[in-house]
Amino acid sequence: MTDTVPTAAPFVPATEDLDRLRAAAQGCRGCDLYKDASQTVFGEGPPDAEVVMVGEQPGDIEDRRGHPFVGPAGKLLDRAITDAGLDRSRTYVTNAVKHFKHKPAAPGKRRIHSSPDRIEIMACRPWLVAEFSLLHPRAVIALGAVAAKGLLGPSFRVTKQRGVPMPWPESAYRPEDFAGEAHDDAFVLATIHPSAVLRADDRDAAYRGLVDDLRVVTERLAAGR
């Protein structure tokens, strides 16, 4: 007997409404991560967002509040977006995995995240595909290794390929999965996750690197207008 491969696909409705998609995601049982999470944390932002940012997964605070990038890493990302000259109001933020995977913690202590594995990333991918099918961004920013590998394939290395605009990943996945009706000049760029800045020994240098990468997006968008 063959084991069933975990996937969120049966829970993803056929819809052109992001709000309906977000509501449906609350009932996702595509993999086992929902069992230890408080709720699904879906993407948020304007449906006509010029930029889409994809992180790894929600953190402890996001899991409790039900919104992406509202914890310390999210606040740092908001500052970096502004410092890089991007428009936060035209940015959609989401995660490759919609449930919080974490290690057990003592009562009252913040739960520490565990990186999702390949099976969990692929199980959640139908939600990311569904989001992109309704969004028409000019730029997609992968924040961290998990998001970058989810978008660009398992061989991608953020440490070696960050800050470089790339076309849609035709060799890794069908571009229509992510681009939808994206602009002809749509591109993807990978950088570090803002949580990596918070963990860095030299936070100032790490933050400058993040902002520099985001400025590449700002300049590319400006050149295409």
From TrEMBL:
The keyword Iron belongs to this UniProt entry's keyword annotation: yes
Domain of life (superkingdom): Bacteria
Keyword Hydrolase attached: yes
Coiled-coil ranges per UniProt: none
Keywords: 4Fe-4S, DNA damage, DNA repair, Hydrolase, Iron, Iron-sulfur, Metal-binding
Boundaries of every Uracil-DNA glycosylase-like domain copy: 42-215
Family in the record: Belongs to the uracil-DNA glycosylase (UDG) superfamily. Type 4 (UDGa) family.
NCBIfam families (alphabetical): UDG_fam4, UDG_fam_dom
Protein name: Type-4 uracil-DNA glycosylase
